[in-house]
Amino acid sequence: MENKFTKRKATEKLIFWFLGLMMLSSIAILGIIIFFIFKRGVGVISWEFLISMPMNGMTEGGILPAILGSFYLVTGAILVATPLGVFAAIYMTEYAQKGKLIRIIRIGVSNLSGVPSVVFGLFGLSIFVKYLNFGVSILSGSLTLAIVILPTIIRASEEALMSVPDEYRSSSLALGATKWQTIKHVVLPASIPGILTGCILGVGRVAGETAPIIFTAATFFSMRLPKSVFSEVMALPYNIYALVATGTSPQKQVPIAYGTAVVLLVLVLLINLIAIFMRIKYSNKNAN
Amino acid sequence: MNELKMEVKNLDFYYDDFQALKDVNIPLESNKVTALIGPSGCGKSTFLRTLNRMNDLIEGSRVDGNVLFDGKNIYDQDVDVVELRKRIGMVFQQPNPFPKSVFDNVAYGPRIHGLKDNETLEEIVIGSLKGAALYDEVKDRLDDSALGLSGGQQQRLCIARALAVKPEVLLMDEPASALDPVATAKIEDLIDELKNNYTIVIVTHSMQQAARVSDNTGFFLMGDLVEYDRTDKIFENPDDQRTEDYITGRFG
Amino acid sequence: MLNWTTKEKIIKNILMLFAFSSILFLTGIIIVLFREGAPIFTKVGISEFLFSSDWYPTYDPPGYGIFNLLSASIVVTIGAMVIAVPFGVASAVHISYILPKKYKNIVKPTIEMLAGVPSVIYGLFGMKILSPFLRGVFGLPTGLTALTAMIMLGIMSLPTIVSLSEDAITAVPKSFRDASLALGANRLETMIRVILPTASSGIVTAIILGMGRAIGETMTVLMVAGGASLFPSNILKPVRPMTATIAAEMGEAPVGSEHYQALFGIAIILFLITLVFNIFADIAQQRFKEKVSGE
């Protein structure tokens, strides 16, 4: 009896220890990747690098156009996707009755989120670049990216709206407010933090997307900053790819790629961190 | 009998196939407090919600019969639900202020109904807070979040919020059940005060509360209105054996 | 002046249009893919397209068989899962079941944060750091191989699998655990006999979603897989998965040409595969919900 008991305990300990080791190595592997990128890229970064134009066929100079280009693309995508996603979520949580319709919409959202990013790129190429004739441009790229993050924003908004207590709705209606007044003045304001978190996550995702913009917006090297929404742009993620995969003078261009990678990584991790903190703070507040 | 503010005639209510109210007939007198008592699940809260059509929001629910409000059936086709709910206010079991300031909570109703003038708004808010016996406690923190008030204060705020749209009838769904005895006493005093200006219908699970605050009492059991009468009659000498059993605590 | 009931109806209908946007885009994607890609199926024949290994889109006469590309996608994805599943599920179990709460509150957000690392960063690491390392270890002519792609995709899928599996294990009601512990089972036995069986369909969902992401992943494989359209018979040789093919060749394929159509044809196959993954993930998710709620 005594013996069997200790054996059970030893097995338990051993297995738990092994699981812990697996977890630590998973985190370590991910950490190593980030460490190496930083180690090789941090030295490249300087104020000059961030605010100057590229020179000599992208072998010298800075990455200002890529930073700005990414900023334009992300802003455009969020501006389009947020109203679309939030209004869709309002319909799904506040208006739609349980049944086939809402099931179909849900299936649509979940399948859209599973579409490979390169397929979004093809869609954008065919519809925005060619059919609507927007060309390879900020506009085409932003619209394509907006579709990529639409499911993320719908889901986050849905969750935020559903976490608004039902009592708010009934007491507003009992005061003689219409449904839309109730949503506009009570439900939506109460769910803003959650929706915002979703949008921030969307920003993080979109900032790093490469495949959807290869054929719709991105250019490798540009001497000028974009003039309008119909200009093609440089973008941080595409810049990294283009420098290492198609660059002609690796000894000069690979360091620039690492520098760009550090900028992108810091940006994305920071954005995600903010979103995660907001979510933790918000859900604590709701729980109290 | 006094003038009737509302009168319910042959009211049936169904959730899908389940009949939650069976042929309910009840008069609601003007400027009186009518208490609805009965064990949980007896239909008293459901009944209360048929009076301002809050039950409309439940999918699969259905109403038969008449609910007359100043002589007009509120379930008629041409009745404007929004207008109706403006005239028949409601206070819920859990204090449920909006996550807004004290002022904005009370101002919510009037604003929704199109009032923009700040001076009038302020007048209404202060008047309503006074009417709910809350003004003195919150006058220095009208701009603070309503969620920072105590439970009892929150409930009186909800009453003030309901008063601000100037209703004629006030429906209260166990308004003190989530509160401590001191806060409960304040709410009960307030109800006594309010009946001078409003017709009040209150659902309560506490028989003492019904006895203390109401003029008339209706006893519900499994969807039936078993007995309706003056409160002292119900508590001292009920006609129905089931009422007596409930009042004396033999079940429930 | 509209009365409020009409106004409410108009608002409701407008919102409904918004809600249908996802369906609209999904349908749009399907229509675009088939409109641009379907002609290649009639020209080449579906079985030839799927099962011929001759991918020579720029030769004369050209070859449009994607067998090698499809196989490469499948092999690389399976390889990635062989790496990601054991590490991912073990980590999830440890985080949700063993790790003390104060550590969990640090580890879980860290992993969620890492899930946001862009694929092009993994590509850069795989191309410039992992691949020279593998070339040295195995003495290869090039370090850009199927194995490199597997490792990078596996690492990339880790955060997704950990995070979703962890959610599934945490969603198992505490009462199940308490009941088992109260019967004298120790924590390990409780985990193996009660927690994991209950969470299994949730974990399966996580794995399927991870696979869907891996097979659709573009930038990493484009950068590290080597790009040769060979049959993946040896994981130490370069391969060219479907996504990489599309991304690499779309720029040079004239719009409307056979080559262009063939690339859309590949996208159709890719889309269908991820669709199937999604449907399976939904089914598994449904099962999990039923199990946890006991319906």
UniProtKB/TrEMBL annotation, chain A:
GO CC, any one term: plasma membrane
Statement: the UniProt record of this protein carries the keyword Flavoprotein: no
Protein name as it appears in the record: Phosphate transport system permease protein PstA
TM annotation in the entry: 14-38, 63-92, 104-128, 134-154, 229-250, 256-278
GO molecular function term, any single one: phosphate transmembrane transporter activity
Occurrences of domain ABC transmembrane type-1 (ranges): 67-275
Taxonomic lineage: Bacteria, Bacillati, Bacillota, Clostridia, Halanaerobiales
Organism: Halanaerobium saccharolyticum
Gene3D superfamilies per record: MetI-like
TrEMBL record, chain B:
Nucleotide-binding as UniProt keyword: yes
SUPFAM superfamilies: P-loop containing nucleoside triphosphate hydrolases (SSF52540)
Subcellular location(s) of the protein: Cell inner membrane
Record keywords, A-Z: ATP-binding, Cell membrane, Membrane, Nucleotide-binding, Phosphate transport, Translocase, Transport
Protein name as annotated: Phosphate ABC transporter ATP-binding protein (PhoT family)
Bilayer topology: Peripheral membrane protein
Coiled coil start-end: none
GO cellular component: plasma membrane
Record-annotated membrane-spanning stretches: none
InterPro entries: AAA+_ATPase (IPR003593), ABC_transporter-like_ATP-bd (IPR003439), ABC_transporter-like_CS (IPR017871), P-loop_NTPase (IPR027417), PstB-like (IPR005670)
Function in brief: Part of the ABC transporter complex PstSACB involved in phosphate import. Responsible for energy coupling to the transport system.
Source taxon at top rank: Bacteria
Domain ABC transporter: start-end pairs: 6-247
Keyword rRNA processing: no
One Gene Ontology biological process: phosphate ion transmembrane transport
A Pfam family the protein falls into: ABC_tran
Source organism of this protein record: Halanaerobium saccharolyticum
Gene Ontology molecular functions: ATP binding; ATP hydrolysis activity; phosphate transmembrane transporter activity
From TrEMBL, chain C:
InterPro entries assigned: MetI-like (IPR000515), MetI-like_sf (IPR035906), Phosphate_PstC (IPR011864), Phosphate_Transport_Permease (IPR051124)
Example GO biological process: phosphate ion transport
Residue intervals of the ABC transmembrane type-1 domain: 70-281
Gene Ontology molecular functions: phosphate transmembrane transporter activity
Membrane topology: Multi-pass membrane protein
Primary localisation category: membrane
Membrane-crossing residue ranges in chain numbering: 14-34, 66-99, 111-130, 136-155, 194-215, 260-281
Subcellular location: Cell membrane
GO CC annotation: plasma membrane
Record keywords, A-Z: Cell membrane, Membrane, Phosphate transport, Transmembrane, Transmembrane helix, Transport
Family: Belongs to the binding-protein-dependent transport system permease family. CysTW subfamily.
Function: Part of the binding-protein-dependent transport system for phosphate; probably responsible for the translocation of the substrate across the membrane.
Protein name: Phosphate transport system permease protein
Organism of provenance: Halanaerobium saccharolyticum
